[in-house]
Amino acid sequence: MPNLTIASFEDACKNQGLDPTTVLPDVSCLPEVDRKAVIAFAKRCIIQRAINEDWEADWADNDQPKYYCWLDVEPDDDGSSGFRLSYYVYDFDYSFTYLGVRLFYPDAKTARYEFETFREMHEDMILIPRLPR
């Protein structure tokens, strides 16, 4: 049963017995434009395990439902980024996926919860920030 009480990265770390102040990688060696994305991915991996509790995607079982969020990025009328949840994808074939297997959920409700609760991390991971030149 998914744990839909995880509301922060700190909650996820506590659930997983991790120290949120030391668990994240040192990204100082990376270009600045990539740092937020790497940190967001690391956080989301920990959050996913905490939310999913004991559930793991079994890639040898094609009958096991596996869900992830399909996100849509389009400019809005005002020129800003229209970043939103487009729909949930049920991954029906373990050899056909658009997302790393680490970020799957057992049902659409859990995938939506994770997106809505941690939307900013999705943005950090997917969108390229505009850096001052």
Describe the structure in your own words.
- It is built from four helices and two strands, in the order H-H-E-E-H-H.
- It has 133 residues and is of the alpha+beta class.
- It has one domain.
- Strand 1 and strand 2 form a beta hairpin.
- The relative contact order is 0.20.
Strands of the widest sheet, in order across it, are 1-2
Radius of gyration: 16 Å
How many domains make up the coordinates?
1
User: What's the total helix number?
Assistant: 4
Strand content: 5-15%
In whole angstroms, the N-to-C terminal distance is 47 Å
- Arithmetic mean pLDDT: 82
Sheet/helix structural class? alpha+beta
The low-confidence parts are: 92-97
Summarize it:
With 133 residues, the protein is of the alpha+beta class.
Show the helix and strand layout.
Elements: H1 9-16, H2 32-52, E1 67-75, E2 81-90, H3 108-117, H4 119-126
Helix pairs in contact: 1-2, 2-4
